[in-house]
Amino acid sequence: MTRLIIDTDPGIDDAYAIALACASPEVELIGVTTVFGNVGLADTTRNALRVLALCGREDVPVAAGADRPLVQPHPHLAVHVHGEDGLSGLADTLPERATGLAGVDAVSMLVRLLEESSEPVVIAPIGPLTNIALLLAAHPGVRSKIERLVVMGGGIDGGNVTAAAEFNVWSDPEAARRVLVEESVPVTLVPLDLTTRCAVDGAWLDRLGTSGAVGETLVRMSGTYREHYQQALGRDGIVIHDAVAVAEAVRPGILRTTRMPVDVDCGLGPSRGMTIGDRRDHRVRIYEAPREIDVALDADLDEVRAFLGSRLAGVH
């Protein structure tokens, strides 16, 4: 069984991702850490606690992490996509969790969970990478305890928050560059290029909405998100980016990856936050890249949608 930690900024698609992990017997969800991103840290932390309560997971420790990027101020939140509270204005309708926050910050809890684990741990960072960059910079000794990072972020062929940049990487490009380019921990990057292709339609949502309490709640609190994607996609449906990444953490190989070097633009111009994937043959590269990572660019899309739908509906 895979031991899993989710680092998250809930967010609608983060809520689907957390619920997916809770519904998957292949993984033991041993912790959730929160970070600023879609909304502010206080809201992302409350949302993580309440989604876990919805899923009946009082046992999973939760710790709050970074409330700002490493270097530059965070330009803006994603309230126009996720709602002012991150959950379409419905966060307070979710059950409160009797178990509150762990008595430590996110990085401290990550260190403890990693050091106490008898086997390597998979971490799924599905928000800005600030917590993970801080962890690896301050505690390099835990690298050997991380099996891999399954990161939702980046866009090899363009972005969503700008023409060049995807939201998670754009929110803290310096942290993203440290994790994706400068570190040695194995990474599977799940970018927009694939997650957008895995969009689910209105019929998929309608089926999930009649599957039980968790499915009904997820669909009900997707209102603002669904409205946004009706405009972005031109049809009824949503893109549950983060759940696609967690699907790979739960079932390794459900996404097909290509190894390549990547870089992140940390400049202050219009390409800030761009994720640059070098898909050229290594024999024609002029310089030696620091390292290569696995980038998920393809999958059996129907299989991914079916897997997400069945798990979130409670069918294993």
Automatic annotation (TrEMBL):
In alphabetical order, the GO MF annotations are: purine nucleosidase activity
In what residue span(s) does the Inosine/uridine-preferring nucleoside hydrolase domain sit? 4-304
List the Gene3D superfamilies: Ribonucleoside hydrolase-like
Which GO BP annotation is one of this protein's? purine nucleoside catabolic process
Domain of life from the UniProt record: Bacteria
List UniProt keywords, sorted A-Z. Glycosidase, Hydrolase
What InterPro entries has UniProt attached to this entry? Inosine/uridine_hydrolase_dom (IPR001910), IUNH (IPR023186), Ribo_hydro-like (IPR036452)
Signal peptide (UniProt feature, chain positions):
none
Pfam family membership, one: IU_nuc_hydro
Q: Name one GO cellular component term.
A: cytosol
* Residues forming coiled coils: none
Q: What is this protein called?
A: Pyrimidine-specific ribonucleoside hydrolase
Biological source species: Actinophytocola oryzae
